[in-house]
Structures are given as C-alpha cells and as structure tokens.
Amino acid sequence: xxxxxxxxxxxxxxxxxxxxxxxxxxxxxxxxxxxxxxxxxxxxxxxxxxxxxxxxxxxxxxxxxxxxxxxxxxxxxxxxxxxxxxxxxxxxxxxxxxxxxxxxxxxxxxxxxxxx
Amino acid sequence: xxxxxxxxxxxxxxxxxxxxxxxxxxxxxxxxxxxxxxxxxxxxxxxxxxxxxxxxxxxxxxxxxxxxxxxxxxxxxxxxxxxxxxxxxxxxxxxxxxxxxxxxxxxxxxxxxx
Lengths: 116, 114
Hints:
heterodimer; A: mainly beta; 11 strands; 48% strand; B: 0% helix
C-alpha cells in the first residue's frame, strides 16, 4: 500500500540550471497538488492538477515554474533557471477526489531543493 | 481570503503531561474542513486529526483531540499523555468544502521533555 512517492529526496542545482521534481500519487488517486515550504514557514499551495489538466495554478510563480500530470507516469514540477530563492522543500500530495466530502490530501516526503 | 494563524512558534511539555496547541483561522465560508498535521524531522507530513465544520462534536483520535469553536474561529489541538514520539512541528490547516488547496499556518514546534 504505497503512499505518495517523491524523488529525488534531495536535489542540488547551480543557479541557472533546471530542476525536475517527480511525484507518484497514491495508487488510484487522480488529483495531485504541489506545495512549497520555505524555511521556518508552513506549506504554501502552488498548483493542483488532474490527469492531463491543470485545474488551479494560482499559487505558481508566473515565470520559470511549470507542472504537468500526464496520462501515464508521475507528475512533474519543473523549475527552469533556478535561483537561490527557489531553495525550499517541495511537497506533493494526492487525493482520490476533489474538494468535498472532506477528502484529505496524502502527502509525500518532499524534495529538498538546494540552489548553490 | 483564508488565513490560518498559529501564535505559538514553540511549545514544550513534560512526558506524560497534556499540552494544547492553538490555531485560529479567518474565513467567510460556512462549510469547510480543518486539519492538524504533524511534521517530524523526517519532514513527512502526517495527518493527526480532521474536523468537519458542520459537526459540533469535537474530533478525537486516541490521545489527540480538538476544541473546535466555530463562532470564535478557533481550532486547538490537545495532546494527552505526551510521548517522546510526539515531538515534531504541528501545522494547522484549512480547506473549503469545495476548495482545492489547503491553507497552512506557520507551525508550532513541540518539544517533549523526558
């Protein structure tokens, strides 16, 4: 009964490089959420996706960040031309359904991105 | 806009004692859900307890219980018989009934003293 899987757990990138973070949701879950946690802060919503669709990207920076959740394979959060301010823990969560009925989100262990 | 406030950055409790973590939130919605998540040093987010706003009865999960005051928009977590394994960051979170995202507070770091 695998939970949400994220890889890599730790990622080091130099300024200007690209970072790719992967998330495999709980089996059977078709809703994926990405959150960012800066040091000493709570998690901040970035984007919500269903298979092949971005539903809500209101928390995603307008530039350099993109996300996808293809029909097959994991969800990917891509950060292009990383800067030091992108250093954070990025969490993925999944749920079986959207919103109502109180479905909680199951979180992965996070990917800690360090930009040097 | 929804905001979640945790006014206690750090708390400590003696092993076997009881501790209460505070959380307040701001919303104009009437139907929503509240959660407490635990984040140990491993950084894994673990659901501790959940409360539906339409339920007057406070949620309970073993040693964990909440005091949900809807009118005051307050949602505190009580941990009874504290154990060393309870040491972690605790985050309060809010989600609208039809919403997609969670809104998290800034967390309370709980230390359990042997």
